[in-house]
Amino acid sequence: MIEQYIFLKEYPLVRLFSLLLLAFLLGLNIPFGIHSKLVLLISVLSLLFVFYTRFNFRAARLRMMSRLSSILLYCSIFCLTFVRSQYASSLSQPQHYSMLTSEMEQLAKLEILQDPIAKSKSYQILACYEALIEQDRSKSAKGKIMIYLEASEEIKQLKQGDIILAKLSLQAIAESANPEEFNYKEFLKRKGIYHWAYCKKEDWQLYQKAAPWHFSNFISKQRSKIIYLLKERLNEAKVQAVALALIVGEKNELSYDLRNQYAHSGAMHVLAVSGLHLGVLYLALSYLLRFLRAKKYQIIQLLLLLIALWFYAFLTGSSPSVLRAACMFSLLALATSFQRKTQILNILAASALILLYIQPMLLYEVGFQLSYLALLGILAFHSKIYALLYFDNFLLDKIWGLVAVSLAAQLTSTPISLYYFHVFPNYFILSNLLIVPLAIFSVYTGFILILLSPIKFLSIYIAKLLSLSIKSMNYLVEKIDACPYSLSEGISLELYECILLYLFVLLAYLSMQVKRKEFLFASLVLVLCFVVQREVKHWKNLQAVYLCVYKIPNQSAIEIQAGNIAYQLFDEQLRQDKETLDFKLGNFWIKQGIEYPIELAPHQELHLFRIVDKNILVLDTFALHTKEILALDYLIIKAYKALDLQKISSTFPAKLYLFDSSLPTYTINYWKKECESLNLNCYFVSENQAFVEKLN
Q: How far apart are CA 438 and CA 434, in angstroms?
C-alpha cells in the first residue's frame, strides 16, 4: 500500500507547498494582532531547538529527538509563513500614511509607479507615498494610492519613477453597489490600495524627474519605444491592439468586442504574456547562446539568460502569469547550469513559494491561480491523455499532442475559470490548434522586428509579416466566435462547487496514479453530489421571485425576477450600454439563472405589478394622472423635476417608498426631509446599496 504512494517522495517541495498554502490562507484572512507576535516567538524558539538537536551529537543520535526536531522545523516554517502573509497588508506597516495622520486632506510627495493611463476625462496613475508634508515639515510615509489627474498637456510628460507633489483629498474606495458585482474595493485592497483621490491641474506639480539610471524609468522608456515602434510599423487599429497585448502586455488598446471575441473563442490566454512568451524567449536565447555552453562560460550564459527573462518580465508589466514563468525558467536555467537533476513539479512548487513569500497577495490574483493550475494540469494529465491514442503519421501525432495539452490544461483550469467568468469556450481545442501556432510565430516575429528595427527597409517587411500573422489570428478568432454554439454562457459556480470539482479532479488523478478503485468510487460520488445540488439550486431559483432596484449612477434600473424570467424597466441609455450592464449586473443574472429578459417600454403604459400578493407600482406619467387611491407594498419613485410627495403618499399609500438611483444627488436631502415629515418608510438607493428583496 505504501509503495503505491512512493511517487510523493519525489516531490518534497510539492508537499511543503501544500502545507504552506494553508499558512498563507490563514495569514491573509486573520487580522494582524498580538497573536502574530506570539506565533513569531514560538517559531523562533522552535528553530533554536531544531538547531540544538541537529548540532548536538547526543541529541542527534536519539530517534525521538530527531523526529521531534523535524516536526518543530515544519511547524516553525508554517508559523513564519503565517506571520509573513499577515505582514503583507500595508496597513500593518507603522509608516503607512493612514497610521501617520487621520486627516483626509493631505499634501504628499509621491512616486509614480506606472505611466499615466488615459481615461475619458482624466489620467489614472498609481503612486506610492514617499513623504507627508505638514506645516513645512516632511515625514517619511509608505502606502499606495490611485490618483486621477485632470487632463492636461503636462501629464503626458509624466513617466514611471517621476516624483510629484500633490494636494490630496482622500476618498475611500466604494463598496460594490449591486449583488454579485465585481468587488473593486476588495480587488484594490489586495493590491495594498485603500484610497483614491482626484487632483485638478493646480493641485499637483512635478517635483523631480526620475534619474536616467532609475530602473523603472529605464523600463518605462524601453516599453514606450517598443509601443511606438509597433504603432508606427503596424497600420490597422485591431492589429496594433493585438500586437501590443501579445508582445508587451499592453491591453488598454483592446476594444470590448475584440476582447470578447478572443475570450469566447478560448484564445484569450495567448494575449496574456505568460509561459508561452517566456518559453519562446528562453528557447531562442538558449539556442543563440549555445556557444557559451563550455564550463568556463556557463556562468555568463546563465547571467545573460536571467537578465533577459526578468527584463522582459518587468517590461511586460510583471503580471502574475509572467512572474510565474520567469521564476520557473530561472530555476530551470540554474539547475541546468549547475547540472542538477530537476523535477518540473518541484520547480513549479518552488516558484510559487518564492513569489508568495515576496508578495503573498498574489495568491488572490486570478492570473496567478489560472497560470499555476493550467500548468499543473498539463504536468499531471498530458502524458496520460496523450497515451490514449497513437498515430503513425507525424502530423497527426503532433496535432494529437496539442489536443492533449489543451485537454490537460482545461481539466484543472475550467472550474476556477467558470467560478470567475461564468463562460466556457466550446471550441477551445480548435482555437488552440489554429491560433496558438500563429501566436508563437507572431511572438518570434515581434521579437525579430524589435531587434532589427534600426534596419528600416528590413523591419518594414518583417512588420508586414507580423501584420499578416495577427490579421490571420483575428480572422480565425472572429470566425470561431461566430460559429453556432461556440460559447456556453450563464454558468454560475459557487466556491464550494468549485472545490468539489477540484476534489473530483484530484481523486481522478490519484485513481490513475495509484490504481485504487476507492479513489475512482469517491470521485464518482462527488460528481453525483455536484449534479444533485446543482439541480436543487436550479429548482429553488425557478420558485423564487425578487424585486430589484439596482444602483447605477444617474440611471433608473428596475427589475422583477420570476424564476428564470426578468421583467426589466431600464432607461433607454442604460439599455443600450451592454458593457455597463454586463459589468454591474451580469454576474447576478447568471447566479439567478435568468434566461429570458423581457424589456418593458418606459412611459408607455401603467407599470403596476401584482405578484405573490404584492402590489408594486413604478411612478410614471400614467400613475401621476391617476386619481384612484391604490394601496401598495412598494412604490418606486424615479427622477422627476417636481413631485408633490404628500399628494402621492395619499393617493398611493405604500409600505415602502423606494427612490431609485436616477435621483440627482442635490435632491436626496430634500426628499429625505419630506419623508421624515410625512413619517414615510423610505429607502434611497443612491445613498445605500441596490435594493433586492425576495417576495416569496
A: 7
Q: What span, in angstroms and rounded, lies between the C-alpha atoms of 623 and 603?
A: 10
Cα distances (angstroms) measured from residue 101 to each of 98, 138, 167, 196, 401: 6, 13, 15, 16, 59
Using DSSP, state whether 510 is helix, strand or coil: helix
Cell of 248: 508587451
Determine the Cα–Cα distance for residues 378 and 407; give it in Å rounded to an integer: 8
Backbone angles phi, psi at 204, to 5 degrees: -145, 160
Which one, of 648, 649, 656, 652, lies nearest residue 682 by Cα?
656
Helix (H) or strand (E) holding 41: helix 34-55
**Phi and psi torsions of 172, nearest 5°:** -70, 145
554 closest CA partner among 668, 664, 689: 664
Residues 560-569 as b or e (16 or more Cβ within 10 Å = b): bbbebebbbb
Output the nine-digit C-alpha cell for 395: 502530423
Measure the CA–CA gap between 587 and 143, rounded to whole angstroms.
Answer: 32
Alpha-carbon radius of gyration of the chain = 30
CB 678 within 8 A of CB 659: no
Taking each helix axis from N to C terminus, what angle separates 256-265 and 456-482, rounded to the nearest 10 degrees?
70
Eight-state DSSP code of residue 8: G
DSSP string, 286-350: HHHTGGG-SGGGHHHHHHHHHHHHHHHHHHTT--HHHHHHHHHHHHHHHHHHTT----HHHHHHH
CA 105 to chain centre: 31
How many Å apart are CA 170 and CA 164, to the nearest integer? 16
Cell of 402: 496539442
- Assigned C-alpha cell, 559: 427589475
Q: How far apart are CA 481 and CA 426, in angstroms?
A: 10
Single out the residue of 88, 144, 83, 82 nearest to residue 113, CA to CA: 144
pLDDT of res. 4: 46
- Strand-pair category, 596-599 with 565-570: parallel
Provide the residue type at 360 as one letter: P
- What is the per-residue pLDDT across 386-403, written as a single tens digit (0 to 9) for each? 988 888 888 888 889 888
pLDDT recorded at residue 257: 86
> Using CA atoms, how far apart are residues 30 and 25, in angstroms rounded to an integer?
9
Q: What is the per-residue pLDDT across 317-358, written as a single tens digit (0 to 9) for each? A: 778 888 888 888 888 888 877 777 778 888 888 889 999 988
Could you give the C-alpha distances from 237 to 37, 121, 232, in angstroms and in order?
Answer: 55, 22, 11
User: Which residues of the chain carry a pLDDT beneath 50?
Assistant: 1-6
Residue at 470: amino acid letter: I
Q: Which DSSP symbol is given to 151?
A: P
Amino acid symbol at 326 = A
166: which strand partners?
Answer: 108, 204
